[in-house]
User: What shape does this take?
Amino acid sequence: MNPIWVDDRGALQGLGSSRTADPGTGPDRYVVALDEIRRSGRDRAFASFTFDSDASGSIIDIPETVQRGEVPTGPPPGPMTVIDDGVDEWRVGFEKAMLEIETGRVEKIVLARQVVLEVADGEIEPVGIVSRLATTNPGCFVFSVGGLVGASPELLVSLRRGRVSTLALAGTATDPEDLGSAKISEEHRHVSASVTRALGPHMTVVDLTEQVIVPHGNMSHVGTRIAGPAVPGTTVADILADLHPTAAVAGFPTSAALDLIREVEPESRGRYAGPVGWMDSDGDGVFAIALRCGQIAGRRMTLYSGGGLVAGSEEGPELHETKLKLAPMLDALGQR
Assistant: This one.
């Protein structure tokens, strides 16, 4: 299927023949992706990068043309069976992660859960999932790139016409009044600080810093909006290399959290929680963090959800949070 990106301006859809490539690993992969667009002679590409920069599997899709229009429609998948709900693996990871927090190895780690479903007949087509996600998740970035389909509430970075903006989310509750708790305040502090540090070299001045409450379905998140003019010559590839992963999807300190994630999560995240979006040959682009999403592989689809753990986190509420974050995809699949 051709790539799709849906935002508040409508749907961007790639049309015609596509050139696809894996931009490789390491922090240079974003610049490699931009170079691929420029060498192609085409204007814009859709991209989805792995969460772990050391992991292969990122994809850049450079379509012949890109059209802005209505969200495409299609039927949802047929009845699906849960092959693995990921709960047992998540609980083992939770225990290991909390022990490492107690020892001081990390202050925060984001632990992900994977749920595998299978459709009875045929392969899973993303068009119907995209159309349902766009309808039921207003205000989110809906995407379908290389079989990764989802609806993210979190803008990682936008660079357009010399202006940088981001929305750093961390801290989730079903009751907005609970967002003022000490645990959530601690979780969000790490995220906003890490994003501010990463953006600093790429902005001439920060002229907007605003904390907001971001509703999404039956959840609410604490968010910090940051915006300002970019340093001349900056590209979105430059920013991505410094900005991702944020503490919102990895933890703090980042390097230690990444090492711990590799140890405690039984399967690679793939492109879940990685940057997903588009960039053009001028170096502008918009990327979300690939959240509330699933990866299609033939008849199977792996859904992902996660949450930040800090000192004092409790297993029951944290597991419940992963269930809440699975809801948008399960709804779009007709499984609730």
Summary: The mean pLDDT is 91. The radius of gyration is 19 Å. The chain has seven helices and 17 strands.
